[in-house]
Design goal:
Blueprint: H1 16-22, H2 34-42, E1 49-53, H3 60-71, H4 78-81, E2 90-95, E3 98-103, E4 112-117, H5 118-130, H6 141-155, H7 157-165, H8 173-184, E5 188-193, H9 197-201, H10 206-220, H11 223-226, E6 229-236, E7 242-243, E8 246-247, E9 253-255, E10 269-270, H12 271-278, H13 287-294, E11 297-303, E12 308-315, H14 317-326, H15 336-348, H16 353-362, E13 366-369, H17 383-393, E14 397-399, E15 407-411, H18 415-426, H19 435-448, H20 452-463, H21 466-471, H22 476-491, E16 495-503, E17 506-514, E18 522-529, H23 533-542, E19 558-565, E20 572-578
Parallel strand pairs: 1-6, 1-9, 4-5, 5-6, 18-19
Antiparallel strand pairs: 2-3, 7-8, 10-12, 11-12, 13-15, 14-15, 16-17, 17-18, 19-20
Helix pairs in contact: 19-20, 19-22, 20-22
Length: about 575
């Protein structure tokens, strides 16, 4: 049997899943092979068409290569999968008219797989365009994609004679697969990674996009095409393109950041998986710090049998692994093209997007509706659609709430994304004129100069903003939000901030510690609701919250801030002392 790039790929050095598995000795391998179980349940069934889309660097390509490792005849991976989660699979299927209990070995390396990594295809196409000699039937990347796959089908002896007998010189992919299926009763597993590349890389070429979706429609909506596949799996960043309100491939069961369904645990690393990684000797970073930097994508998981739902806390897997490998938490969200896209979207400023982005960075939520989102990068004419795209790109998280339909709350998920968005905003010509920037400077200087009245006034103004009203103001957490959001534009680059930091005999509500500059003060802040600012300040002193900063000759200035909110008078009071 011939091993190809597209037909029955083998598990070799180009397989990204295999690379990660081979490095499992370092303790950073996370076993997600139970994802294969879901595809086994659907294999050969009516619901065997799956579209799974999530942001860059969230492991979608690794998952596609994992499926190729498992299903492809060209791979020999029994030893690989025998010790992983998928080995525990047990299911019941109708095979040849009889009910049969099957294990994970039923289809292991026994299927004809067509694997299309569209990034790889695009690279090959660009090299082809630069060539002098051209192929007559190839005029664009869609033609080129079909040409490459059919070329490999014709090079497989078992298929070559069938296609030759078809008597069609320029046979299309759908026709080629139909001939093979009808004559040999062979079905394929179809895997396409980066399915949406055409919509991202050729975003202004609508005829090409329509031609591409016509190719997929021919494969998966026409009866003769659909019967050729035991399983189809598409992965990318964008959900399947919609025309009006309907998906162009609405027979695919689709899972994405807006509607994750039962696949929520597979959108990234879960809290349990990160906790396990953090216990490995290779990891020198606490799970709490990993959580602050890279978690926050809360995706709702529904249990239909129990009639319940819960939020799954998902981490960016690439960033977690990068931080552990580099022994440093920082922003690994440095894809230039992706950031350029976020800049373009923010600067559209539909319905006051800039103001909403500022609020989101400060920690507030924004309500949006993804119903009219067309799942592409160009059909954008309102804020809802822009926020939908930012969620798909991973710059925003979104949270469902009961009976909300297609409405979601958008929010900035973690510190990595917040720092990235702050850098983006600071690079825009309109940044210096933002009122929140001046307010942030004024608040910091008020605290530093022990001006408690001005501090209380500014925090009160933030409290009375519509964004804070949207999240409620009935807990001390809300006071923390007001102060943190007020300071963020001045302190983000020069301070680390911590909520509930162990200090002295208790936990300090909020602490700002300079990253490096010795001339900046440490700020320890305690919040009280319906007590007094004196109570807040006294708690800092009585619990000796500043003790950790008086050790080893640390001579930095320490400011103690007590802040109170009265639910009866709706007033704020503040006291500030210097140690």
């Amino acid at each position: 049997m011939r091993y190809g790039n597209f037909l029955n790929p083998k598990a070799d050095s180009n397989n990204q899943f295999l690379k990660i598995w081979k490095n499992r000795i370092n303790g950073l391998f996370v076993d997600k092979t139970d994802f294969i179980n879901e595809t086994l349940d659907r294999f050969g069934m009516d619901n065997n068409l799956i579209a799974f889309t999530k942001p860059r660097r969230f492991g979608k390509t690794v998952t596609a290569y994992m499926l190729a490792c498992y299903y492809s005849k060209g791979a020999d991976c029994k030893d690989l999968f025998s010790g992983l989660k998928v080995a525990g699979y047990a299911g019941v299927k109708q095979i040849n008219g009889q009910e049969k209990t099957i294990t994970y070995e039923e289809y292991l390396n026994k299927c004809n797989v067509l694997f299309l990594d569209m990034n790889n295809v695009n690279s090959k196409y660009k090299n082809y365009v630069r060539r002098t000699a051209k192929i007559e039937e190839v005029t664009d990347i869609v033609d080129f994609t079909e040409y490459l796959v059919i070329k490999e089908l014709k090079e497989e002896p078992e298929f070559a004679s069938i296609l030759a007998k078809a008597g069609i010189s320029n046979i299309g992919l759908n026709d080629a697969l139909s001939e093979i299926h009808q004559k040999l009763n062979i079905s394929f597993v179809f895997i396409m990674d980066e399915w949406d590349l055409i919509y991202r890389e050729y975003r202004d070429d609508e005829p090409l996009q329509e031609k591409f979706i016509d190719m997929l429609t021919g494969l998966f909506k026409a009866t003769e095409g659909l019967s050729c596949f035991s399983l189809a799996y598409l992965t990318g960043i964008l959900p399947i393109k919609k025309y009006n309100s309907e998906s162009a491939l609405n027979n695919f069961k689709e899972y994405n950041m807006l509607m994750p369904g039962k696949f929520a645990p597979y959108f990234g690393f879960t809290e349990e998986e990160v906790a396990k990684i953090s216990c490995q000797p290779r990891c020198q970073i606490s799970k709490e710090l990993l959580k602050e930097w890279y978690e926050g994508y809360k995706i709702r998981l529904y249990d239909k049998d129990a009639g319940t739902s819960r939020d799954i806390d998902v981490y960016n897997p690439n960033s977690v692994i990068s931080a552990i490998s580099e022994d440093k938490c920082q922003s690994y969200w440095s894809n230039t093209s992706s950031n350029a896209e976020a800049i373009r979207l923010i600067n559209m400023n539909y319905d006051g997007i800039k103001d909403d982005i500022i609020n989101l960075i400060s920690g507030g939520p924004v309500l949006f509706d993804f119903f009219t989102f067309q799942n592409d990068m160009t059909s954008l004419d309102n804020k809802d659609q822009v926020f939908s795209l930012l969620v798909c790109l991973g710059y925003l998280g979104c949270r469902e709430f009961p009976n909300a339909g297609t409405e979601r709350y958008a929010y900035v998920p973690n510190r990595e994304i917040r720092e990235t968005l702050i850098d983006i905003v600071k690079g825009q010509p309109w940044y210096s004129s933002l009122p929140v920037v001046a307010r942030s400077e004024r608040l910091f200087q008020a605290i530093r100069s022990l001006d408690a009245a001005t501090t209380a006034e500014i925090v009160g103004g933030i409290h009375n903003s519509p964004y804070v009203a949207a999240i409620g103001y009935n807990r001390e957490d809300s006071l923390a939000f007001c102060l943190r959001s007020g300071l963020i534009w001045h302190t983000e680059s020069s301070y680390d901030s911590f909520r509930e930091l162990p200090a002295g005999k208790c936990f300090a509500d909020l602490v700002f510690v300079p990253k490096s500059r010795a001339d900046l003060p440490i700020m320890i802040i305690e919040f009280k609701r319906d007590y007094t600012a004196e109570d807040a300040l006294n708690q800092i002193k009585e619990q000796d919250c500043a003790a950790r900063y008086r050790q080893d000759g640390d001579e930095r200035e320490v400011l103690l801030v007590g802040l109170n909110y009265s639910s009866e008078t709706k007033e704020h009071h503040c006291l500030i002392e210097k140690m």
